[in-house]
Design a protein that fits this description.
globular; 37% helix; 2 domains; alpha/beta; 230 residues
């Protein structure tokens, strides 16, 4: 279970605070597949970072009573001067995983050849994405977190990523934040729309899209549910 309790997060700007999350309270059950639809700049990445623990809220707090992944595919924790293999060894030790098994899995899954033993700072973005997703899949979590990423690389590797993710979701939960309703429909069964710092429950990804479309056209009158469904 992941619980947000009265979570508020804002960024200060010259003309005052920009509210990204406004007193949000919500529970994510351990095995739920939750999709959150959000437009660019609405706080999607901030919410992902709060859930994962990378950022702290300005007020309220986040409780995690299960293991939560870092956002899928990220290499933010990788040191650019270390090789892919060295980074994987270090992260495996930090997470108390079998080092040799984790390295073997990532080398096989990423399938980046000799680059696996070169400094990550020399990688092209596509290679970094492959390595990041390989490490994401090498560790089993109670809940996986994704800031819109469900795969990486070319179409063959994307198929490999999504097959691995679907296999994990047989026994794990997912919190997927995305700008695309179609992506949420593929992976999720519970839905929210993120708008003006609030998480609005919706019956489907399509309803979440309608909610954001209506809000964009008519401002905050989308809170009138009858009008939104008229």
């Amino acid at each position: 279970m992941i619980t947000l309790l009265n979570v508020t997060r804002y960024h200060m700007k010259p003309d005052g605070p920009e509210i990204l999350l406004n007193d949000v309270s919500l529970q994510f059950p351990r095995h739920a597949k939750t999709g959150i639809l959000a437009l660019a700049g609405s706080g999607k990445t901030t919410l992902a970072r709060l859930i994962s623990g990378v950022e702290r809220p300005d007020s309220g707090h986040v409780e995690r009573r299960c293991s939560v992944s870092f956002p899928l595919g990220t290499t933010l924790g990788f040191h650019p001067r270390l090789s892919g293999a060295e980074n994987i060894r270090l992260l495996a030790r930090l997470l108390r995983r079998d080092v040799a098994e984790t390295v073997d899995y990532c080398e096989s899954f990423a399938d980046i050849g000799p680059a696996f033993h070169r400094p990550v700072g020399q990688y092209a973005p596509a290679l970094r994405a492959r390595l990041g997703f390989a490490f994401s899949m090498s560790v089993e979590f109670d809940t996986y977190l994704s800031d819109g990423v469900t795969s990486a690389g070319d179409h063959l590797f994307r198929d490999k990523c999504e097959a691995a993710l679907f296999e994990r979701l047989n026994r794990s939960g997912l919190i997927l934040l995305s700008r695309h309703a179609r992506t949420l429909n593929r992976f999720c069964t519970t839905f929210y729309a993120l708008h003006e710092g609030r998480l609005i429950p919706c019956d489907s990804a399509d309803e979440a899209q309608d909610t954001l479309d209506y809000a964009g056209s008519y401002g905050t009158t989308f809170w009138n549910a009858e009008a939104r469904h008229a």
